[in-house]
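Model the whole thing, not chain by chain.
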Amino acid sequence: MSQHTKILLEESEIPTHWYNVIADMPNPPSPYLAPDGTQVPADAMMAIFAPDLVEQEFSTQRWIEIPTEIREIYRLWRPSPLFRAQRLETILGTPAKIYYKYEGVSPSGSHKSNSAIAQAYYNKIAGITRLTTETGAGQWGSALSLAGSMFGLTVRVYMVKVSYDQKPFRRSMMQTWGAEVLPSPTTLTESGRTILANDPHSPGSLGIAISEAVEEAASRKDTNYTLGSVLNHVLLHQTVIGLETRKQLEKVGDYPDIIFAPCGGGSNVGGMMFPFLADKAAGKQIRLVAVEPTSCPTLTRGRYAYDYGDSMGLTPLMNMYTLGHDFMPPGIHAGGLRYHGDSALVSQLYHEGILEAQAVAQLATFKAGIQFAKAEGIIPAPESNHAICAAIDEALRCKETGEAKTILFTLSGHGHFDMSAYDKYLNNELDDLIYPEAALQASLSNLPIVSS
Amino acid sequence: MSQHTKILLEESEIPTHWYNVIADMPNPPSPYLAPDGTQVPADAMMAIFAPDLVEQEFSTQRWIEIPTEIREIYRLWRPSPLFRAQRLETILGTPAKIYYKYEGVSPSGSHKSNSAIAQAYYNKIAGITRLTTETGAGQWGSALSLAGSMFGLTVRVYMVKVSYDQKPFRRSMMQTWGAEVLPSPTTLTESGRTILANDPHSPGSLGIAISEAVEEAASRKDTNYTLGSVLNHVLLHQTVIGLETRKQLEKVGDYPDIIFAPCGGGSNVGGMMFPFLADKAAGKQIRLVAVEPTSCPTLTRGRYAYDYGDSMGLTPLMNMYTLGHDFMPPGIHAGGLRYHGDSALVSQLYHEGILEAQAVAQLATFKAGIQFAKAEGIIPAPESNHAICAAIDEALRCKETGEAKTILFTLSGHGHFDMSAYDKYLNNELDDLIYPEAALQASLSNLPIVSS
């Protein structure tokens, strides 16, 4: 075995610029709209986001420089390793080569830190001292708590109450980094009080937690709000993943035929795939496949339409694939993929046929994740198992056809805080949790009407 | 900031040989004895250990080649990174340089995998198909489960019942890699049945679990027993830690003035420090400090005497620092350091003044661990916090004296499966858990008498 198992880069090879896909999209991105059809101005976003982040949200510049202060923190775990899954290939008996980019090496355990560090930095230099956010499964809340401790910012995380109770270790992780974690709904915000007045025992939801975090940020000058996916600037920050991967593959003289990434709000898809898009436009044969859960099939079953980003209808309207903002996805364990909508950029590129999508069912993802863990050691996050499942299926197709394809996927995080899900799977207590078709049709028929 | 944050090595720089400290010790190691004072022959160990491991246990050869098959698996996470803790140095305001070798990058999350992979391999080539072991906190059980899945061996882990119930996620981790995990005491062994007959609700202990695992291995030809620390061959395998660290420091032109490692059974101490011992013998100024809990102060308060390795008195007698084999350490959260004895090699080198030791209290270790996490990101295992605490104290002494020392410590694992301990600390529910002096004196007065 003379090849590398891990392909590493030097710290000096951490990208100096993020790649902004907007510069290379065939069509400009759809604007954010108010319900009356007017465009939402950048200024309106300044109330809760740092100016540099709002500028990035609307920038058409191809390369955006990564400040030294952010690259210094990235050095704690970046460049992240690219692995050649030789043991998995042998076990599958496939002629395909399988590579995976491992983002679980960040202290918070997932790719989320790539944007959290950037968002904390830009808020810090804008004179902001406090950040709010929401978290469900806990990956984003953990990443922002870490980022807050790196830049000396106070972080308040509204954690969906049912997760707060069920995932005490994610909560302790955030608290270890100094964050304040509150079970949402709280009595601290109007949104929370309204919910609690109707249901004193509300288990909370991501939509409610977003409303609380946004409301607090909007009401305080020293405080801004942060979001872990969906928005253009978040996907921009994540492009370090794909940029590093390109360099790593070049080092071993390889290039992917097909890339898989798990897809919830789109930050993994954008982060890994956007840096490969220009090649595709230039005629390179490469397939880019977003993998989502069958229980929350935004791209594969949703409608391309203007909809709210949150379930309460507080955000601007975004042109995206959506299951309807009041679609309630079943309680699958890949909590990071339980989102009714998707990044507007990912949605548009999918709509234009540049990205592909496929949906996989929960049980198949855990089966794939365990096969991966036994071969490669790392126990993946349930979200990552979606990409693994699709990659293994592709490798097995290659075995049938004899094609020696190069398959690449993003291993977005480890599963150390998701072992209860593995436990349930191993004890045959999980199923595929299909949503009722009638509920999907109902939420799709309830999309906001945009007057124009 | 032009220096490296992480000092990395290529996979080709994974050590090709383990370093056997016995070749360079001023005196030969004390033999293992039976209670009648006769030397325990190597043959007797063959009943439960693979022949190559027994050979390593008694070898006096300085360098022992690492088989390719083991190095291939090491490549999944080795060489592990050496970090320069620049952010921590800045926060402490110390002129000292602080380096840490991070072993938490292994899939099982600690240094334990270095020996587990080797032990599984040697058993595999000896025709063994099943391995047994015990686990308390779960780091060793996890490492062996991973190793079993890598070499296709069946692994049965006797997990102390109270840990089995309190640490379900460690259990799920082992099961994900395919291991069978049983709450000990079980009814499957004579040892377990004896205990249960006396106390049907026994919470178990490491001593009982060892007895069960040894008994099963002794009774089956296809099955061997494995141990995660204490024995010479285990410490031998861990020397990859120190060997890599030497190379990494050479790359940046540095050399440690003082090294700290957490000390339970001694595998961290041996793994990091043994490769620096020859330098010390050659006159190099370097201090090597084992850090243990004040609640289980084997080196700092124990007696250097022949004692059993387990609480039931089934193992050979080893000449080591011991608190007495029936000493019951308080339930501190650094479970890996709750051992009444210590490696015979570490004990002898400490007795001869070559290694030093210091004890730190539980609360101070968590305070240090959280300070480290906020500065460097990684949340450490409670065991590792002992080394961190001592390193920070040393760095603060340097601040007072103005000495620009080079401090090195082993960050032996991450704390992702120990967040309940952090939670308790953050909620002021932990204390220092000092053992009663009378209990220590009682167990010290109950050491076995070796006739000679």
